[in-house]
Amino acid sequence: MSNAPLLDSAVSDQLYVEVQRFYAVHMHLLDEGEAERWAATFTEDGTFEAPALDEPVRGRAALAASIRHGAAEREAAGEVHRHWHGMITVAVRSDGALAVRCYALVFASPKGGPSRLHRVCVCEDVLVREGGGLRVRSRYVTRDDMPVTARRAG
Predict the structure, then answer these.
(1) What pLDDT score does 3 carry?
(2) SnoaL-like domain spans which residues (predicted)?
(3) Which of 32, 94, 124, 144 is the most exposed place for a label (fewest CB within 10 A)?
């Protein structure tokens, strides 16, 4: 069960829109294979944890390497992925960080073939202010087709 709230009525519209804009840029960078720029949207020690990973990915260098690897695999397979984050909830934590929860859909499009829904996930992020903008301190992803595992990143 998630620790993130399901309601965000106390969050200002301005903050909510800022979070949505952050994810719009963040996901475009990911889908365009902009590995270093995407990794820079995480804190220097940011973590990414998902059930298909043996261990959480830690730090910008490892995050960028992970994206480059995935982009090369998709290129070799002749497939394009697009990420969509929606149904976002936002709450301000007592430490000032933002607890964000959303549905994340990944669409896969083989070149010359029909697009399909590749993955259905729940994404839980902790966002912090750093360098004048929002950054991901931690990301925990669950997939609807896989069992939920205990968090390892802390």
Answers:
(1) 54
(2) 16-139
(3) 94
